[in-house]
Amino acid sequence: MKRTVFWGALAMTAMAAGAAAADTLSEVKNRGELNCGVNPGLVGFAAPDANGNWAGFDVDLCKAVAAAVLGDPGKVKYVPLTGQTRFTGLSSGEVDLLARNSTWSFSRDTDLKLDFAGVNYYDGQGFMVRKDLGVTSTKELDGATICIQTGTTTELNLADYFKANGMEYQPVNIDSNAEGEQQYMAGACDAYTTDISGLAATRAAFADPENHVILPEVISKEPLAPAVRHGDNNWGDIVRWTLNALIAAEEYGITSKNIEELAKSSENPEVQRILGVTDDLGAMIGLDKEWAKRAIQASGNYGEIFAANVGEQTPIGLARGLNAQWTQGGLLYAQPFR
Fold first, then answer.
1. 296, CA 20 to 30 Å: which among 23, 137, 237, 248?
2. 127 sits in which H/E element
3. What local confidence, expressed as pLDDT, does residue 22 receive?
């Protein structure tokens, strides 16, 4: 009953925002700052340092959009949103863009009137336990206490998985990853469940990461995607094609280091269009010729962003996997720039 009321309130907020859909591009330009909704604190994806400077995989998408629209990746106001407040924050206009490891699902796309601008991380739900618990499979968690963020697809997947496998569990409800980490470390739950990328990021922050195991089962598909309000198609196009520019840049070998040289010397028509050397794709979305070039310069192409924040050489240590380019066996695939 509570969930029905919660989702109904969200839908009403979304409908009201859609009915009065504004020109987000003009609002952002007039404000001179992009309001970007992010995770309150998930190292590798979005987290502030001791000086309040934000960094992470999702943060770099915010920077890319700001660079494309405002010409400066630093013109971003980061708005921390929990799993329960993220969609109302977007629908109400508190943020212009939600870049907060959120799963693209049917009800969120349709009932909440959100538009997802392409998948920026292909993920799946998993479980983490202490190594000394001796558990090697989720099938051994029957009767376990499990820390779970409320208002998430994770919560629903957990219920489905245990029901399908004839198992029981005791949920320990949490509002944020920080609270989940605290409860898990305090022994309030036997296991912590969320997206595997989130588990890896959480484990990396522990003083003893080697004493915690991410179990092998992946129980769901979690296509994580940035979202905008339904009804402002041009703004959605800007975010979608900014993400595509980062993905395409990696495919075509455009990096933050060689971008100026390629703009002068590349004979690849696609590269020339992306960098604004030929054609004027920016005019189609209310931007100038070099919008995509600036987006790529902000933090690098998709591969550079992945490697710097969550890749195998970072404490989080994630392999590219499904997030590799389509030419390398992954699912990343940018639509043509033409």
1. 23
2. strand 125-130
3. 65
Q: How far is CA 260 from CA 63, 202, 263, 276, 292, in A?
A: 19, 37, 5, 12, 13
- For tokens 């090697």, what's the residue? 136
pLDDT of residue 15: 46
Which domains are delineated in the chain? 26-120+225-246+299-319 (3.40.190.10), 125-221 (3.40.190.10)
Angle between helices 302-309 and 57-70 (to 10 degrees): 140
The one-letter amino acid at 23:
D
For residue 223, the cross-strand partners are 122
Q: What is the pLDDT of residues 125-137, one digit of tens each?
A: 999 999 999 999 9
Beta bridge partners of 149: 174
Beta strands in 131-287 (DSSP E): 144-149, 169-174, 191-195, 212-214, 222-224, 227-229
Across residues 301-310, what is the average pLDDT? 98
Residue 270 clears pLDDT 90, i.e. is over it:
yes
pLDDT in tens, 83-95: 889 999 999 999 9
Which tokens go with 114? 């959100």
Q: Does the pLDDT value for residue 334 go beyond 70?
A: yes
Plot region of 279 (φ>0 → left; ψ -120 to 50 → alpha; else → beta): left
Q: Which long-range contacts (CB under 8 A, 24 or more apart) does 213-217 make?
A: 213/128, 213/129, 213/130, 213/131, 213/135, 213/136, 214/126, 214/127, 214/128, 215/126, 215/127, 215/128, 215/129, 215/135, 215/136, 215/137, 215/138, 216/136, 216/137, 217/126, 217/127, 217/137, 217/138, 217/139
Cβ neighbors of 31 (< 8 A, separation 6 or more) are: none
Dihedral, 212, 216, 218, 219 alpha carbons, nearest 10: -90
